[in-house]
Amino acid sequence: MEGENLIILFIALIVLWIIGQVFKGNNKSKNLERIKEFESILVKLEDEIKELTNELSKWIYGCKKCQNNNYYITSVSNDYAVAQCNRCNKTYEIKYNNAFYKIEVIKNLNGKWNELNDLLNKSELKDKLHSYFQSTYNFKGDVAPTWDEDYVVYNYFFNSRKIKYFSFKYWATKKSFALYTNVFYAFYFVSDGSMLDKIEKKKSQIKMGKLNPNRPALLKEITKSWNYKSITSGKKSNIIKNWAKKTNQKCPDGRKCGGIYFNSLDSSDIAYGHILSQDFAKTFPHHHEQVHHPDNLYLTCKSCNSSLGGNNADKDLINRIKNESGTIGDWIRNYINEIETIN
Predict the structure, then answer these.
(1) Smallest Cα–Cα separation from 156: which of 39, 47, 40?
(2) Do residues 245 and 142 share a domain?
(3) C-alpha–C-alpha distance, residues 222 and 239, integer Å
(4) In total, how many domains does the chain have?
(5) pLDDT given for residue 125 in this prediction
(6) Distance between CA 165 and CA 167 in Å, rounded?
(7) Is residue 198 situated within a structural domain?
């Protein structure tokens, strides 16, 4: 009799096990069906966010702490996005509104990010991920058995899909236990910084603006330090040419070059022109100092300077120098601090 009872109990356990497996299989199938329901929408959103993330990569340089270029986005709003270094975990806040520019891609990214979260919330898969990790810890913080139906969701998000990230932390004592979970997508990207480079270049391209028609005289110590010899040869000559290149200045003459930008020329192809020609100083030597004064000098390309020969600048060229590009004296007068920092 006891043997028969044991056999019946054993059979009952097998039946329960089979029912349990079927139940688990059904749950697994249901989860897979849920996944398939929104798979195409999810993929489309992921692709759109990945594209926006790549655009955002142009607005951040490599990590200052570890020089790594690999990041992932941990959060985003209309005002900023937070990128975390994938090596040292240092975070960087990329702001939408900056003094010299706005990063429009952040708002677009936030919109798509919200669509993605709404999709996950409606699918209930986000809650499944939470329950999966909740079930893996007991009150002592030890690993506990997991449920297959939750694992399907976990495996889908963490193994099948390559751009997801999950962070969690817990603390436990003899009397209390807490588990903090945060499920989110982590879209990885490699920092590019190209847009920041353009902004820096734009900021350095100082515009002359409307030049003061009544320039104050340059101080004697300035004209002595920036005299004709020092301006047209040696270190100061290179400093001025480099400043002109960095600030995107161009040849004001243009009769030969068409107004070429100095940053496209070798320094040897850039010359110092005279508004009143040096021939004038030869005829009237008592005007020698004025002819070589910084306010009578301007930067030009070598071909245009050669074509001018020993002639004075004509009226059109004088107006362009006077009202647009400025003389060397104008540059020193207005931007002496910036010029002196150029190497």
Answers:
(1) 39
(2) no
(3) 15
(4) 2
(5) 57
(6) 7
(7) no
Residue 52, both tokens: 């926006």
Give per-residue burial for 296-333: e unless 16+ CB within 10 Å, then b. Answer: bbbbbbbbbbeebeeeebeeebeebbbeebbbbbbbbb
Distance (Å, rounded) from C-alpha 270 to C-alpha 309? Answer: 15
pLDDT of 198 reads 84
Q: Please count the other Cβ atoms lying within 10 Å of the Cβ belonging to residue 37.
A: 12
Q: Report if pTM > 0.90.
A: no
Tell whether 94 is covered by a domain: yes
Domain that holds residue 268: 204-340
The predicted structure's pLDDT at residue 168: 40
Q: Do 67 and 179 belong to one domain?
A: yes
- Please state, as a whole number, how many other Cβ atoms lie within 10 Å of the Cβ of residue 36: 9
Cβ count near 31 (within 10 Å): 22
At 284, list the tokens: 């009237």
Cβ contacts of residue 294 below 8 Å, gap of 6+?
218, 223, 226, 231, 327, 328, 329, 332
CA distance 275 to 329: 12
What are the backbone angles phi and psi of residue 63, rounded to the nearest 5°?
Answer: -60, 130
Asked if residue 12 belongs to a domain, the reply is: no
Neighbours of 245 (CB within 10 A): 17
3-class secondary structure, 20: helix
- pLDDT, averaged per 10 consecutive residues of the chain (343 residues), comes to 59 59 54 64 82 92 91 87 90 86 91 79 59 47 41 47 42 42 63 87 61 83 90 90 90 93 93 91 80 94 92 92 91 86 73
